[in-house]
Amino acid sequence: MTTRFFRILYVLYYLKNEDASKRKKFMKHVCDAQGISKMTLWTRMVKDSIRYNVSLNEYFLFHFYEIDGSEKEDWVGTGATYEYQKKMNPPARRKVLSNKVLFYDAYRPYIQHEMVTIDELERDPGNATTLLQNPSGKVVLKPSDGQCGRGIEVVHTDGLTPRLLMQRMRDGGNDLAEEFVEQHDQLNRLSPSGLNTVRIVTQLNEQDDVQILTARLRITINSAVDNMAAGNIAAPIDPATGILCGPGVYSDITKQDETHHPVTGIRIEGFQVPFWRETLELAKRAALVDTGNRSVGWDIAITRNGPELIEGNHDWCRLLWQLPVKKGLKKELFV
Length: 335
Known about the structure:
The chain is an alpha+beta fold. Helices cover 36% and strands 16% of the residues. The protein has helices spanning 3-17, 20-34, 38-52, 56-61, 69-72, 78-88, 95-98, 100-106, 118-123, 129-132, 162-172, 185-190, 276-287, 318-322; strands at 115-117, 138-142, 153-156, 176-179, 198-204, 210-219, 233-236, 295-303, 306-313. Helix 1 (3-17) packs across helix 3 (38-52). The chain starts with a helix and ends in a 13-residue tail after the last helix. The relative contact order is 0.13.
């Protein structure tokens, strides 16, 4: 079967699984701005999706409606990302990254905060004692196999007993409780509504040398989670200095970039990420723990005591990688 056939199947997948309401919103925005019909736009979307291996919504997010073919070639869409990550991170090796309990066991030297599973609580409710006494006064409940911030709940520990904690976890469908990580004061000054994590993507070459593929800061806007899909922004980090080198961008073409945080007013470009050298070193060491997974997106929290791992993603986001720098980065991948 040909490449074109598979890409047509991808289009059918996008029609079934992508956010149709977002696509409708983006289509209206472009049709109004360019004075074209929906039929014309649909034709261009499908044609470019097949030709450049991007999803229908990525046609808008990558601004394909206003760039030429040579620029389109540089962007890495859903289809190409899937193929690259399947090669770099074989499905049989991914479990340590897709299951947070296994992840904590494998990467424990790089994790500082406490966690407990619902199974451990059911065997002995006393396992929650240290967690419920953590200095933040909060715990984070999440599914061990969750992604993109889905299902996460932040709960205050005041008056919370082990039994009540277990009930709250069952009610929310969560099987993992973690200590709430308190971020560095400078990041709290930038945005205090949630934990603002650094995303560093690494890839290994044939000699297992670690390359830093990207560094981004995810910045919350009145949100307990920092994912772009939740309406937050992300900014590029200069890997050499740890300084933000661009504005905050949304994964929404109808919104303008943010030069300053819309709530705190702190200027984004020029902001220094604390403990940057230590953060880079942490990502490089983590990348060598399991070389069977050769390209991983590391989510790293910066605390008053330095960086610590939150999670590793075998299916790291191509939007967070490319949107903040407003260009396609296909040439940076090992293929």
